Amino acid sequence: MTDTILIHVRFNNDGTVLEIQERPTSLTPDQWFKKLTEKAANHFQALTGGRGVFRLSPDEVTALKAAVLQ
């Protein structure tokens, strides 16, 4: 079975990102969310209460973070 990393997202009432996990320190929460949605939108699941989650493999998370650092 493949490991899955859950990247939890919490949104403000205005739609901006309040908190997001696995965020590189060089990016704001909104910038990291935008990068993830550009590359992995099909892995995002909206939840109730202004929350959502990305379900990605460890390799996908590593690749996304590496792309940010380039």
Q: How does this model look, in words?
A:
The protein has one domain (5-69). The protein is 34% helix and 30% strand. The protein contains 2 helices and 4 strands; from the N terminus they run ββαββα. The protein has a 4-stranded antiparallel β-sheet. A hairpin with a 5-residue loop joins strand 1 and strand 2 (17-20). The protein is globular, with a radius of gyration of 12 Å. The model has no long low-confidence stretch (mean pLDDT 94).
Secondary-structure element order, N to C? EEHEEH
What is the spatial order of strands in the main beta sheet? 2-1-4-3
| Structural Rg | 12 Å
Query: Structural class of the secondary elements?
Result: alpha+beta
Runs in which pLDDT lies below 50 for 5 or more consecutive residues are none
What are its keywords?
single chain; 70 residues; alpha+beta; 4-stranded antiparallel beta sheet; 2 helices; 34% helix; globular
Explain the layout of strands and helices.
Layout (H helix, E strand, L loop, with lengths): L4 E7 L5 E4 L8 H12 L3 E4 L3 E6 L1 H12 L1
Antiparallel strand pairs: 1-2, 1-4, 3-4
